[in-house]
Amino acid sequence: MRCLYCNGVMLEEIGWTDLFFKRVEDPFCDVCRAELIRLEGPGCTVCSRGMETEGICSDCNSWAEDPVFQDALISNHSIYAYNPALKELIKRLKYNGDYALAGCFRKELTDLLKPFKKEAILTPVPVSADRLKERGFNQTEALLECAGIKYEHLLLRRNGEAAQAKKLKRDRHRGENPFAAIRALDGEPVVLIDDLYTTGTTIRRAAQVLKESGAGEIRSITIGR
Ligand SMILES: [Zn+2]
Ligand SMILES: [Zn+2]
C-alpha cells in the first residue's frame, strides 16, 4: 500500500489493527495527512474563514448587503485550509487528471453530507463544456462518486466564461452569471459541492440561479477554503 500523495510505502510500520481500522480509510501516510490542516478553530459562521473569534467576516457582511446575492447562500462549510499541500493535491486531481486522488476525501464528504442526504438535493458545481473536454471529468463529481454519494448533476449548466470576465472575477457583478438552471425546483433545499471556496462568487452565483429556479435553503460544502 502506497501513499497516494507522496507514493511512500505505508505498510511497513503499521500493525494489523491500523490496517483494518484506520489505514484502509486513509489513502495518505501520516506525514502527508498532517500537511492537510482542518479548519476547526473559530471562524466565520457563514463561510468558514478562519478568524480569531467566532462571528461573521467582512466579506460575508458585504454579501449580506448585496441586493442580488444576499439571500442566495445560507452558509458554506469548508473542510481544509487551502495551503500548499492542498493546492498541489487539487492541482493533480484537476489539471493532471489524477483520478485516483478523488477518493482521498471520501470520509470527510460522507460525514459532512450525511445530515443532508435525506431532505436536500446534493449537486456539484458544474464545469463548462470546454473545461470538461479539457479535463475529461468534473473533479467535484469525481470526489462524490469516489465517496459513493448520490448526487444530481442536472440542476445547473455552466457556460464558458469569456477571458475578460475571468480576469475580473473578483468583481462580483462584472461578467454574466455563467450558470443557468436546467429544471425548476419546488422549495427543496440544495447542497452545492465544490472543490474550493475562493472569493465565494462562483458558489453564490450558482446559488442565486438555483434560488431563482425555486430552490429552498442553499448551503455549500467545499474541500478547501
Ligand atoms: Zn505520503
Ligand atoms: Zn465569511
From TrEMBL:
Domain Phosphoribosyltransferase: 181-223
Residue stretches spanning the membrane: none
InterPro entries reported in the protein's UniProt record: ComF/GntX_DNA_util-trans, PRTase-like, PRTase_dom
Superkingdom of origin: Bacteria
Protein family membership: Belongs to the ComF/GntX family.
Full protein name: ComF family protein
Species annotation: Jeotgalibacillus haloalkalitolerans
